[in-house]
Design brief:
Radius of gyration of chain A: 17 Å
Largest interface: A-B, 15 and 18 residues
Distance between the termini of chain A: 57 Å
Number of helices of chain B: 43
Order of helices and strands of chain A: HHEEEEEEEEHH
Helix content of chain A: 25-40%
Distance between the termini of chain B: 87 Å
Largest sheet of chain A: 4 strands, antiparallel
Number of strands of chain A: 8
Shape of chain B: globular
Oligomer: heterodimer
Number of strands of chain B: 0
Number of helices of chain A: 4
Strand order of the largest sheet of chain A: 1-8-3-6
């Protein structure tokens, strides 16, 4: 079993947790469950309600849509990340390509953590706003480029 | 109507009487002084320099206002409100003596100076009074009491005017010596301000700066200008106000020219002007009190803003036909009477449909700059017409007629625009209900609201009902009647509230009676309240009957009614047997009854019922528990504090538990601060207790939080400092112990320098554990820096310090340089000594050396660095440091890690065991 510190080392590389201080990540690590999976195991299906984020510790997980493989999540890769922020249906089906282990964070636990810890909420909001700003800047830059052309 | 008038004027409640009387006397005396000085100013100026010099002083006033407002605004940021008023009043008194001395020389420039001084005095003295009123009274009190102050002011103006005539004429005191009299009155005013301040400070809550209004974000003039130009409605307001000011300046010159011609002697002129101002002020007041409401009801906002230009137009025609003192008095009298009564109300109402944010930004700008700007422009025009072209009073009337033409056109355009703007605002629910200090009577506004009552959007209906609260109109009453059967709970509830506020005399009793069986318990509660208020046998007797009703729904609604609205006698109606019965009852209705009972307990003040309240705190229903927690605080029963602390750990109840603890107030501050540093309690509970203390506004809270700063670990220290920041922002008058803050600042600095050394020792490493420690340490020094600035914000202006913080952490060189320059000017030398090397753009080596010199901490090797972290108070750093040692344990570090196996923090214990291979 991973310790809290080891989980933090993994979580700090997850894109959606970028910018969250490591101490706050340790609280997140405390709610991250470690689980094993076997080849062929389905984590979720396309169209299902989102409820958790997954980080692959060992093995591979394939993400499919309409019988077509979109991507493969390998060691330290994350899938289903935005489930933490909304309950929109899944956009792909996630199936284990081989035996392995993963970390899973349920949205309900994550929301509980946010309500308990304003510093994590602050960091998450900063991350989302940062992304939104980046997106707006890109849109503006694109518009500017189109105008120039 | 008499009831309406006197009800509005004399609604002073117990506990407010002393403050209200002192404030009333203060305002009365201020107005007396102003109406001594104003005729003196006019009399002296007109006799010594003549009315043709008036345009020059108008321009001078417009110019002088800018620097004086800037200086005053800066002073208001660094001084407490009472200090600000005292300093300004002392300056007023001193300048009165100086002016009196200067007037003795008879130099022309002194009369310009005196004119400008009195004009600015009038604005500042009254503005200061309202500033103090806003600090002393809350928004609800303001609505009730400010009308009374307005009355005091009018009587002051009238007394000042009449007394001036009496003193100058009958007692033969010279006009110049009125200044001594004013100085003496201002001395009394200073004593009054200090008495008011002392009484208020003794009260339950200190005066919070900006408590009525949150600090406004700085807005550029460009943005305000954009707001104005984008809105046709605002542009029309600007135009109307501009024309009002321009016409007033011309009419003032006409009146004073005629008056100066009619009275040659200085004392005669002063006496005439004084009496004129005093009586016209009284007339304006009587018009406002007796006629404005009916006028507004009959002719609406458009009629209200049309009356002044129409009256001036009539006066101007008279002036052209028969110029003379009578025509002058008629013209200036009409201007004064309507401008400060119905026209003022009309102009304020024009802002009603303007969205709150835009109104906040633009109203002050319009009041300050449009008003002054147009006066200045009028001064220039008058200079041209009076001084250069030598226009007669009659010729000036022609220019006034042109102004009036433009003004009337703008009013006609505004008529349509106002209705459209109001409809749009209503659709978007943008009308600020706080602005409705007077009932809506404008017919077009009422029509829009009546239409909104039929809306299918329930939020809009509720909004319209809230706006119509207090409106005495039969049609509106009839429009509200069917809404008592509306399908939405919120609408029925809002209508009942509106009926209660409007003071109905039971004419809806039948419809409201049927709501006793309403499905919503809050609607039933308000229905009972309405019925009791209008019961023939009296409200207490009616409540007693409802409490004995066989239906538990009715009994619980009656308990709720007592909890929400009941007085002490009605609270006594809740008997022990009733309480036992409610506690023993079951079913969904019982839950509401227990919730209401829990709420009532807060004000029952029956210590014998502690057991019941404790039972309610463990109730299976969350809403009952929440209400019981709030009530526990209101009872002040300290025995219940541990139960609230227990609930603080549960996120479902956290908010209510905090509210309950805040309700205890100052009496448990010491106990709570002990709990904050009690490490046996969870971190969430302790950090939430900091929030609780930040909401208890007392010096004791500040002192207790400051006293535990050195006892808390860094993460908790952050919450303590934040709580102090919050108290400082809302209550800047509290004293923040400098020694405790200095110690905290020193501790943060020492930690900062130490971490810099550790980072240097660790260096770059690809080992994941070392990389994690490196990142954690960098985060910690960022937090150190934030805490340092937060502490500085407790000693200096928080806003300025925050600006400097952003400059220091931001990447822009220019901003950083400005921030350093600012801090260099502000900080004390001994603080700068250890903080400046941190902010300065020097190399890390220089910073480290400086830190070693200042604190004597030398962490030049790995083991010393690890020892520093492991002996420190930060559990997360301890965990990271131990993990970084996983594959690099030396005998010494192994011993250190072994000691951490018994650490209080589970993460540290876990990682120590992992590293040691246990």
């Amino acid at each position: 079993m991973l310790t809290v510190v080891e989980k933090v080392i993994l979580l700090q590389n997850v894109e959606v947790f970028e910018g969250i201080p490591t101490e706050q990540l340790s609280y997140l690590a405390a709610i991250a469950e470690e689980a094993s999976f076997s080849k062929g195991q389905e984590f979720y299906r396309f169209g299902e309600v989102s409820d958790a984020l997954y980080i692959v510790l060992e093995g591979e997980v394939g993400l499919h849509r309409d019988n077509e493989q979109i991507t493969v999540a390998r060691i330290n890769d994350t899938f289903g990340a935005w489930a933490l922020f909304d309950d929109k249906p899944r956009v792909a089906t996630a199936t284990a390509a081989e035996d392995g282990r993963l970390l899973r964070i349920y949205r309900e636990d994550f929301l509980d953590l946010l309500s308990d810890n304003s510093q994590i909420t602050e960091a998450v909001l900063k991350m989302i706003v940062g992304r939104l700003r980046g997106l707006l800047e890109r849109v503006e830059a694109n518009l500017g480029q189109k105008r120039d052309n | 109507m008499v009831k309406r008038i006197f009800g509005a004027v004399l609604d002073v409640r117990r506990g407010e009487i002393a403050l209200t009387l002192l404030m009333l006397l203060y305002y009365y005396l201020l107005l007396v002084t102003y109406y001594f000085l104003k005729p003196a100013r006019d009399g002296l100026f007109l006799v010594k320099l003549g009315p043709d010099q008036l345009p020059v002083v108008y321009i001078l006033i417009a110019i002088a206002v800018v620097p004086i407002t800037t200086i005053y605004s800066r002073a208001s940021r660094s001084l407490k409100l009472n200090q600000l008023i005292n300093v300004t009043t002392v300056i007023f008194i001193a300048s009165l003596f100086i002016l009196r001395w200067l007037l003795g020389f008879g130099q022309p420039w002194v009369f310009y100076l005196f004119y400008v001084w009195v004009s600015i005095y009038g604005v500042m003295a009254t503005a200061q009074f309202w500033l103090l009123s806003n600090g002393v009274f809350d928004a609800t009190q303001a609505k009730r009491l400010f009308v009374l102050f307005g009355l005091g002011g009018i009587i002051g103006a009238f007394t000042g005017g009449e007394l001036t005539g009496f003193v100058v004429h009958t007692l033969s005191v010279s006009t110049k010596d009125l200044l001594f009299l004013c100085a003496a009155i201002l001395v009394v005013c200073t004593l009054l301000v200090n008495a008011i301040w002392t009484i208020k400070q003794r009260g339950e809550a200190p005066i919070a700066h900006g408590s009525r209004e949150k600090t406004r974000a700085a807005v550029s003039y460009g943005e305000i200008f954009r707001d104005l130009t984008r809105s046709r409605h605002l542009m029309l307001i600007v135009g109307i106000i501009g024309m009002t000011m321009a016409t007033a300046s011309f009419v003032d010159v006409q009146f004073k020219t005629i008056a100066a011609g009619a009275f040659e002697a200085e004392e005669d002129l002063t006496s005439f002007i004084a009496k004129f101002y005093g009586r016209v002020s009284l007339l304006a007041f009587l018009f406002q009190l007796l006629i404005s409401y009916r006028f507004l009801k009959r002719f609406g906002v458009a009629g209200a803003i049309l009356l002044l230009p129409a009256a001036l137009f009539a006066g101007t025609i008279v002036m052209i036909a028969v110029p003379g003192l009578l025509a002058g008095m008629l013209l200036r009298g009409a201007d004064w009477t309507f401008k400060y009564s119905i026209d003022k109300t009309g102009r304020e109402l024009l802002f009603l449909p303007v969205p709150l944010e835009i109104k906040k930004r633009t109203k002050v700008f319009i009041d300050m700059f449009v008003d002054r700007g147009f006066r200045g422009i009028s001064g220039l025009l008058l200079l041209l017409f009076v001084t250069v072209l030598h226009f007669s009073v009659r010729q000036l009337s022609i220019v006034v007629t042109v102004f009036l033409g433009v003004w009337l056109t703008l009013v006609l355009l505004m008529r349509k625009e106002y209705v459209n703007a109001f409809r749009r605002a209503l659709e978007r629910r943008e009308v600020d209900l706080g602005d409705l200090s007077m009932s809506i009577v404008d017919p077009s506004t009422l029509d829009s609201l009546k239409t909104a009552l039929q809306s299918t959007n329930e939020r809009q209906v509720v909004y319209a009902v809230q706006m119509l609260t207090g409106v005495q109109d039969d049609e509106i009453k009839e429009a509200l009647r069917p809404l008592l059967g509306h399908e939405s709970d919120d609408v029925r509830f809002a209508v009942l509230k509106a009926l209660q506020e409007s003071g109905q005399d039971g004419e809806f009793a039948q419809e409201v009676g049927s709501l006793l069986e309403d499905s919503n318990p809050f609607v039933r509660r308000e229905a009972i309240h309405y019925l009791c208020e209008n019961a023939a046998e009296g409200d207490t007797r009616a409540l007693q009957d409802y409490l004995q009703d066989s239906d538990i729904q009715i009994r619980s609604a009656a308990i709720g009614c007592i909890a929400e609205h009941g007085d002490a006698a009605q609270k006594d109606l809740i008997s022990e047997s009733l309480i036992r019965e409610i506690m023993a009852s079951e079913g969904p209705e019982s839950e509401f009854a227990r919730t209401q009972l829990a709420e009532a307990f807060g004000s029952l003040n029956k210590p014998g019922y502690r057991g019941v309240l404790s039972e309610l705190l463990s109730d299976p229903s969350p809403s009952v528990v929440e209400e019981a927690m709030r009530s526990a605080g209101r009872t002040g029963d300290r025995e219940l504090v541990p139960e609230l602390l227990e609930r603080l750990a549960d996120k479902r109840y956290r908010k209510a538990a905090r509210e309950g603890l805040v309700n205890y107030g100052d009496r448990i501050v010491g106990t709570l601060s002990d709990y904050i540093v009690d490490s046996s309690l969870g971190f969430t509970v302790r950090s939430n207790l900091c929030r609780v203390l930040s909401r208890i506004p007392s010096q004791h809270s500040v002192d207790s939080l400051a006293a535990i700063l050195d006892k808390a670990e860094p993460a908790l220290k952050y919450f303590i400092i934040r709580a102090l920041n919050s108290l400082r922002a809302r209550y800047p008058d509290f004293k923040f112990a400098h020694s405790a803050l200095n110690d905290a600042l020193l501790e943060e600095s020492e930690s900062y320098y130490a971490i810099l050394q550790i980072l240097r020792v660790i260096g770059d490493s690809s080992d994941p554990g070392c990389k994690l420690l490196d990142r954690a340490l960098r985060e910690k020094i960022d937090q150190n820096l934030e805490r340092m600035f937060r502490i500085l914000g407790l000693r200096y202006s928080q806003k300025d310090i925050y600006g400097a913080y952003l400059g220091i952490i931001g990447g822009q060189k220019q901003l950083k340089a400005s921030a350093i320059e600012f801090l260099d000017n502000v900080l004390k030398k001994e603080v700068k000594r250890y903080l400046f090397p941190i902010f300065d753009t020097v190399t890390i080596d220089v910073k480290i050396r400086k830190g070693q010199e200042l604190f004597g901490v030398n962490l030049s090797d790995h083991e010393a660095s690890m020892k520093y972290i492991l002996d420190g108070s930060d559990p997360w750093l301890r965990a990271c440091a131990i993990f970084s040692l996983k594959d690099h344990l030396s005998p010494n570090t192994k011993e250190m890690v072994k000691r951490c196996r018994d650490d209080a923090n589970p993460v540290v214990r876990e990682i120590a065991c992992l590293v040691l291979g246990d």
